[in-house]
Amino acid sequence: MEFSIKSGSPEKQRSACVVVGVFEPRKLTLPGELLDRISNGYIGDIIRRGDMEGKLGATLLLHNVPQTLSDRVLLVGLGRERDFKDKEYRQAVAAAIKTLNETGSMEAVFYLTELGVKKRDSEWKITQAVITAMESIYRFDRMKSKQDEVRRPLRKLTLSVSRRSELALGEQALRHGMAIAKGVSLAKDLGNLPPNICTPSYLAEQAQTLAREHNLQVEVLELKDMEALGMGSFLSVTRGSAQPPKLIALEYRGADQKQKPVVLVGKGITFDTGGISLKPPGEMDEMKYDMCGAASVLGTIAAVAQMKLPINLVGIIPTCENMPSGTATKPGDVVTSMSGQTVEILNTDAEGRLILCDALTYAERYDPDAVIDIATLTGACVIALGHVASGLYSNDDTLARELLLAGDVAHDRAWQMPLWEDYQEQLKSNFADMANIGGRPAGSVTAACFLARFTKKYRWAHLDIAGTAYRSGAKKGSTGRPVPLLTNFLIQRAEGKPGKARKGAVESEAGAAAAE
Ligand code: BES
Ligand code: MN
Ligand code: ZN
Questions:
Q1: Total-model pTM
Q2: Cβ(460)–Cβ(372) under 8 Å?
Q3: Is 26 a catalytic residue?
Q4: Are 266 and 320 in contact (CB under 8 A)?
Q5: 511 pLDDT exceeds 60?
Q6: What distance in Å separates the CA atoms of residue 253 and residue 94, rounded to the nearest whole number?
């Protein structure tokens, strides 16, 4: 889909459709009123008759509104004005796009971006509109023999800003939105691909393609390279698989060499059977999503490279399958990690931490400013936080705060969990430096505590995305999370205001009023 920005009144637009909002109960927004005025009360009449109450997400498509130059006017319900916040804005945008896409307007001029949203500025509204629009038209049907065709799909959306002075920042917000949306959709595609196609080698090829497209440095380590580095923990996971493991390292240089990079490390288990500690068969297909951390790293790097952010960023992806076989690792095996620490593997299904710990040690060579790992790490995190928030752990409170805020602004939220020493006790082993599991209590915390033993040399955060990376059931599919959180975090850093809600959040009340 194509996007553009414009400033101008709705009654002067020559378009297939003009999209305006209606608050509950029956209150037209300013662009709606302008259309009402030129049509001699045509729209107001319809609203008074009760055809559009303004309920959040409701839509009403009008044809041939008198005196207007556009073919259609789409009224979109916004709910009550005083309740109109981030979530309501996104919901209204999604409802509008869905209707446009289903009713044959191939292009439209969109006035919802002029609405006041508490604490958010027009850049935020534009970026979010683009991301939400792309989200609502996303399909994954490339594995079907026939693609379901939308008859007259929405092709071009023009977003309106209320003042000409907002056009320049609006353009930038638009570019950011398109880059993030593209990153999200790449992450979704990789997650949704079946595990017989999306193998470790496939991920490595994707990384190479990205590198060519965006002029990144890429390196793919093979089994023998990893053996030479002493990655005994990572390699214990791949032993049962016929697919060769890979360690992918991608580098984006957007700033001076001297500036320390942020390093993202993504879990890339392309299928997790559990290994010898085999998982039960129910929903095992969903373990194709066990590479969503890796997918989010690729999606984020793609977005950052497209935005040309002035930062340095590295992505590291340890990737392999976790399979049972005669050569697979057994419960009780002891392995030596690249850090030199030994691990007793009591459960081969706790494999994510085993590949991540070596990748986290490998990250040291980039002299990172901060390292963030992203992993569908534990079922326990799903029990703790459900499908709403990702679990966030960090050895640095400032970094944690920056990530939490970035998630909030992007509506891709995380919730901080404890990393206290007290939990470390659960990882004691009689036969090695540590066990790879900590028992049933606080399973997400002890997994993070395991990783913490490998990240003492730098500022580090861990995102457990087991509950947020994909949906199960009828709407089964990858969400692309946490690409929005990560890209927003990196945009904030690029703008030199880490910790502040630069992107989108208006800090003062005066600013909030000005944005309305
Ligand atoms: N990939 C799973 C975690 C997972 C579970 C992700 C459910 C998404 C949904 C991970 O490798 C795993 O199997 N973890 C075990 C750890 C346990 C053996 C300590 C788990 O959570 O059961
Ligand atoms: Mn597992
Ligand atoms: Zn796993």
A1: 0.95
A2: yes
A3: no
A4: no
A5: no
A6: 35
The closest of 17, 300, 304 to 156, measured between CA atoms, is 17
Instruction: Give the nearest ligand 1 atom to 267 CA.
Output: 1
CA–CA dist 512, 514 (Å, integer):
5
Sign of the dihedral defined by the CA atoms of residues 14, 16, 20, 22, in that order: positive
Identity of the amino acid at 201: S
DSSP structure class, residue 53: -
* Residue having the nearest C-alpha atom to atom 8 of ligand 1: 466
* Residue 260: active-site member: no
Helices 292-307 and 167-192 cross at an angle (nearest 10°) of: 150
Q: Does 272 have pLDDT greater than 90?
A: yes
User: Encoding tokens for residue 188?
Assistant: 């979704």
**pLDDT computed for residue 507 by the predictor:** 39
DSSP 228-264: HHT-HHHHHHHTT-SSPPEEEEEEEE-S-TTSPPEEE
Is it the case that residue 498 has pLDDT exceeding 90?
A: no
pLDDT tens sequence across 385-403: 999 999 999 999 999 999 9
Distance 283 CA to ligand 3 centre (A): 14
Integer Cα distance of 219 and 317 in angstroms: 11
Asked whether the predicted pLDDT for residue 509 surpasses 90, the reply is no
Q: Which residues line ligand 1 (CB under 6 A)?
A: 272, 290, 347, 349-352, 376-380, 382, 437, 443, 466
Q: Secondary structure of 423-455 in the HEC alphabet?
A: HHHHHCCCCCCEECCCCCCCHHHHHHHHHHCCC
Quick: pLDDT tens for 19-75: 999 999 999 999 999 999 999 999 999 999 999 999 999 999 999 999 999 999 999
Instruction: Choose, from 27, 182, 260, 279, the residue flagged as catalytic.
Output: 279
- How far is it, in rounded angstroms, from Cα 337 to Cα 320? 16
pLDDT at 497: 66
Full strand arrangement of the beta sheet holding 342-344 = 334-336, 342-344, 434-435
- The sign of the torsion formed by the CA atoms of 53, 30, 174, 101 equals positive
Ligand sitting nearest the alpha carbon of 324:
2
